[in-house]
Amino acid sequence: TAGNNGIGGEHGKNILIGDQPGEMSAHIVALLRGERWTELSVASRALVTSKFSWPKNVKKLENILLCLPQK
């Protein structure tokens, strides 16, 4: 769960969350077996590109830099 903070993924939709070692290893084994690999890969990429792409975030950065005091 802690690893998802700031990412905003949804368990089972675009991320698999396991807070205990057994949960995490079960998710890893399932992915290595190809279970839902394509579905989760596509959904995860869509999440990351929608939230963390350069075009989307460069405007945020510009706004932050414009707020800084100038010498």
Structure, described:
The protein has about 70 residues and is an all-alpha fold. It has three helices and no strands. The longest helix is centred in the middle third of the chain and has 16 residues. The model has no long low-confidence stretch (mean pLDDT about 90).
Quick overview of this protein structure:
The chain is an all-alpha fold. It contains 3 helices and no strands.
Q: Please report which band the strand proportion falls in: under 5%, 5-15%, 15-25%, 25-35%, 35-45% or over 45%.
A: under 5%
Instruction: Give the terminus-to-terminus CA distance.
Output: 43 Å
Q: How many strand units? A: 0
Helix percent band: 55-70%
Attribute tags:
3 helices, 0% strand, mainly alpha, 71 residues
Ordered list of secondary-structure elements with their pairings:
Elements: H1 21-32, H2 37-52, H3 54-67
